[in-house]
Amino acid sequence: MIIIPEVKDVFVYAHKHRNEIIWMSQNTNHLPTTDAIEKAVVEALREKEYNFYPYTHGIFGLREAILEDLGLPLQEFECLLTSGGTEALYITTRALLQHGDVVITSDPSYLIIHRFIELCGAKCTDFPIYRPPWKYDIDEVNEAVSKKTEMILLIDPLNPLGSAYTRDEVKAICEIARDHKLYVLHDITYRDFADSHTLATEFLPEASVVVYSVSKNCGLAGMRTGALVASRELMNKLRPYNTNDLSINVLGQRAALAALQTKKEWFPRVKEICRRNQAHIKEACDKIENVFLPVYPSQANMFVIDISKTGILPDAVQNELLYEHKIFVRSGTYVSKRFGQNFIRVSFSVPEEHAIQFKQKFPLVMEKLGRK
Ligand SMILES: Cc1ncc(COP(=O)(O)O)c(C=O)c1O
Q: What is the fold, at CATH topology level, of the domain defined by 10-32+263-371?
């Protein structure tokens, strides 16, 4: 018999105990959405739709549903289905960036995108934004543009902080991009959780690429389904880098279509629970000395909890919560090179009982670690 040694890795542990874990670590959505998703997937399974390659441009109606969700006209914009927003980010950076280019980025950020940028030989500016207003300072962005700048990465709302950009700020960023002939890569993965949201395509249709995902809003992270959306002309530059000549996973497509067709009916409830859960977590933070929430309320389904003044390290909090209480949060080191030691990231698209568990356990964990 082969004995597989026990690895002390948080993800190995969490996945092995998946059904017992309160999953607040990856901004995934564990709230009820709609039965229509399961029905569509089961029907596709029953019909063995997986025996076929899907139609190359995706199952009928999905691209249209995505454009409709974004309020973008079919005559002017095109949608390319991808394996999650992740692949859309990869395709976009590959297609638009060259060796030596500079991309305006922030720290903290969703660092996988920075890795894709660097794979192209381009550089990230990594503006420090771990200070109010916890997002780009528009003047700073403007001043930083040089001859080498090619793109502005706009993650809006921002993972991990939960900050978001106003309509005027999106407009200003697009104006900078137009003045300097830059692309705006608008990652809108968390758009639905925000109180209001403006697409960069409104001000810069010719040079905006929208990265779209159903992982978080629709609770379909495991289906690996997303898209990139751009003007028809810009899509001509992106399309050659598409790796999905044979389309993407058909079950993910069926699930996404069912979710989007019904989203207006069930998403408000998801958002409402997220807002209540944020309040539960804030209650816990307010009770602990030297702990604060930089952004509240978050415009996404996550935020960060600053613990820097407690002297406790985020990895210790992550491990204690996971191994002792089966609550999985993420150390800040995953989303920030410079500021990661200051915070943990917590997502709250979980059943309310889970947020209440966090509210009860987090102060105990901080007290225990503070004594060490
Ligand atoms: C900002 C951002 N973009 C993209 C993704 C990836 O999403 P997907 O599951 O659609 O690949 C994530 C996932 O956490 C994210 O935070």
A: Aspartate Aminotransferase, domain 1 (3.90.1150)
